[in-house]
Please model this.
Amino acid sequence: MGDSEGSSLSSPLVENLGSDDALSFIKGYGAYGIVGAGLFAILIPVLLSTIFMGKRKARQRGVPVEVGGEPGYAVRNARIPDLAEVPWKGATTMAALFEQSCKKYSRERFLGTRKLISRDFVTASDGRKFEKLHLGEYQWQTYGQVYDRACSFASGLIALGHSEDTRAAIFAETRAEWLTALQGCFRQNITVVTIYASLGEDALIHSLNETQVSTLICDSKQLKKLASITSKLSTVRNVIYFEDDESGTMSDSGISSNWKVSSFSEVEKLGKSSPVLPNFPSKNGIAVIMYTSGSVGQPKGVMITHGNIVATAAGVMSVIPQLGRKDVYLAYLPLSHVLELAAESVMLTAGCSIGYGSPLTLTDTSNKVKKGTKGDASALNPTLMAAVPAILDRVREGVLKKVEEKGGLGKKLFSLGYNRKLSAIEGKWLGAWGLERMLWDVLLFKRIRDILGGKIRFMLCGGAPLSGDTQRFINICMGAPIGQGYGLTETCAGAAFTEPDDTSVGRVGPPLPCCYIKLVSWEEGGYTVSDKPMPRGEIVIGGNSVTAGYFGNQEKTKEVYKVDESGMRWFYTGDIGRFHPDGCLEIIDRKKDIVKLQHGEYISLGKIEAALLSSSYVDNIMVYADPFHTFCVALIVPSHQVLEKWAREAGINYQDFSELCNKAETVREVQRSLSEVAKAAKLDKFETPARIKLLPDPWTPESGLVTAALKIKREQLKSKFKDELQKLYE
Model:
């Protein structure tokens, strides 16, 4: 779910999760009596694994269907013949769905926020100061209470003079008030412009002016950023800020005197004292204009209708097993990202509890958590959470790194337990699995699960492709299936979703029940629907989750959105996929990533990057191919820890990391690793970078070199490092 981008959701978390978090469990080996437990663990599988053997029988998950539009190979979800449109009768808009859910679950917990007990600063050895937070337990609002607050906020907006014909924007980090404000706007048929909190100044100005926003809702800390651009915002009249302990007075904020500045609670009080009747939107009304931090040019505003959101919620509801009011969802990804907005809409539909956290306070050892206090996951004990692949990759790397450092019998025991569970998941043996699973969980994996609260039963993953190794690792160590999704902002996150009982990896499942997925031949790239053994082509998505287009950009809208003879809307993704015989989709390429070399060979930059990321030396990579040459090159951000460890063991002397990256022997070592990885991935010689450049500084969303989900911005990287790329070809 959610292939388009969000705010800086990943970088802080990816930096922290997977080091101390990932491996406090190793310290506990001795407590269990490693030798005796290890022998016992070995004995049980040997005696019992032969009871039952065999593979699980695969079932049909998607089936071919005849649809209109451009010829191709189309598939629908096997379980539901008609496209899902609403989660239940009458819930045709987000405003209606919100009101009905809040009344149905009025006394149930809905939104939870942790209380800030204290804020401290610690000084590192190099003199830098780091903020540490002591956070208390979650404090909850019921569905009924949130409904009342949203109604008051909606009335308050009208009292401020906001009219239906003008738009409101939310420019803030994820929190309970974000969702409350969103639902308040919906009750008065106000379209909400969502903007990432990490968006650069120029893109922020562009987004607000293009949509002619009159009311801007933000964090109090964003007021300083707004102060520097007030003269460049032509339509803003009201600014509403979410209070926190640092809000203070707004008189010295430096923002325009032409703006009326109010706190969120002040707007609530105003609305409570002057209630107005709701002005409900229509199914086809624009609920959200979502700006993406796309990889090229200014961000585009995707127009998402109310019907799009409720259709995606209806589709996902049918996929997650036993979803209901007993579930607790940990919300820490940005609500300005379509993945999180869709996920929280699903939770609202099912009556789940949503506890808000932050990437910087997610686990007990996250950067901002005061030592000895709980991180968000430990305090909440969620059953559901979403993640982007970069986060899960870092969890896996951290655990495996500590296991390797432990070595000896501990390493062998971990390997044995991991491989036994892997065999069971892949269906290679089924005997006595319940007993053995409990043994391995107690002995090894419970401590890893405790990092995220110990109760995770299902994870949603989207934003980028998830590697098979990482998916298996999470399945085994967290004991939870991963619903790997595929979608885009342009499809309201809804396209394909793996089902919980699908134990395969590398696929994104069948189409969600709210849409069809069609493959259209791309002859130039060599992908056709007549390919054997599986049809291949550009992925085109049609149905109820396909959005209305790009705001103020008819030319781009007409380029990638098409309406067929029946009136169905289709979105051309630019991604290349293939359908497996059971109706599950696999993403195999992207049209923009394919380059033709001098001798006529086609190479897929994305495919090469995905393969080479498995090198332990590679933290990030961009492969570049000049069509006037016969080989490709690569820019690489190496892993500090791994490279410095190699340097120590190799006796390499250096003053700083930049010097280490520039040493010829360092480049040779990384190049050697890439060659091994490329060979294992069966890349052709011309697909393996012939020359590389090591770059010491990480690529972050703040630098503008990667998106919020940590996908590289190819054009920006090519521009920034054009001299380095040119030298690699000299």
Residues 170 and 178 are 7 Å apart (CA to CA).
